[in-house]
Amino acid sequence: MNINATLILQAIVFAILVWFSMRFIWPPLTKALDERAQKIADGLAAADKAKSELATANKRVEEQLVQSRTETAKLLADAEKRAQAIVDEAKRRAEEEGAKIVAAAKAEAEQQSIQAREALREQVAGLAVKGAEQILKREVNAGVHAELLARLKTEL
């Protein structure tokens, strides 16, 4: 056989093989490769979307944490203010109650002092009458001399 004829025959068989491959084999391969490329692209897009959603969710969580921290700090400050106000109010009430008790005690002491003075005046008046009796060696009638005794009490 001639080398040129073999070469031409091999070129024809190669051309048929190329045509057959392009007609029946190449389209399903390119379709499969395109589908795979599309799946990969969809997966990458979904991953990017999930990544951005995760970043957004993390940002929202951080914002909520900051907000809850500030609210907690505000509530604690308000609670401390209320506690201080309650303590101050209790101190004020205790001071008022103490002042009332002291005033009542002073009034009672003054009343007792007045009563003690009156009792002392009575006793001094009685002693003065007894002393006068002793000096005069006779009995002095307290009923008769009530006005005199009353003046004596006021002078004492």
Automatic annotation (TrEMBL):
InterPro entries: ATP_synth_B-like_membr_sf (IPR028987), ATP_synth_b/b'su_bac/chlpt (IPR002146), ATP_synth_F0_bsu_bac (IPR005864), ATP_synthase_B_chain (IPR050059). Belongs to the ATPase B chain family. It is found in: Cell membrane; Endomembrane system. Residues 44-122 form a coiled coil. One of its GO terms (molecular function) is proton-transporting ATPase activity, rotational mechanism. It comes from the Bacteria. Keywords: ATP synthesis, Cell membrane, CF(0), Coiled coil, Hydrogen ion transport, Ion transport, Membrane, Transmembrane, Transmembrane helix, Transport. GO terms for cellular component: endomembrane system; plasma membrane; proton-transporting ATP synthase complex. This is ATP synthase subunit b. F-type ATPases have 2 components, F(1) - the catalytic core - and F(0) - the membrane proton channel. F(1) has five subunits: alpha(3), beta(3), gamma(1), delta(1), epsilon(1). F(0) has three main subunits: a(1), b(2) and c(10-14). The alpha and beta chains form an alternating ring which encloses part of the gamma chain. F(1) is attached to F(0) by a central stalk formed by the gamma and epsilon chains, while a peripheral stalk is formed by the delta and b chains. It comes from Sphaerotilus mobilis. CDD domains: ATP-synt_Fo_b. Pfam families: ATP-synt_B. Component of the F(0) channel, it forms part of the peripheral stalk, linking F(1) to F(0). The b'-subunit is a diverged and duplicated form of b found in plants and photosynthetic bacteria. F(1)F(0) ATP synthase produces ATP from ADP in the presence of a proton or sodium gradient. F-type ATPases consist of two structural domains, F(1) containing the extramembraneous catalytic core and F(0) containing the membrane proton channel, linked together by a central stalk and a peripheral stalk. During catalysis, ATP synthesis in the catalytic domain of F(1) is coupled via a rotary mechanism of the central stalk subunits to proton translocation. It is a single-pass membrane protein.
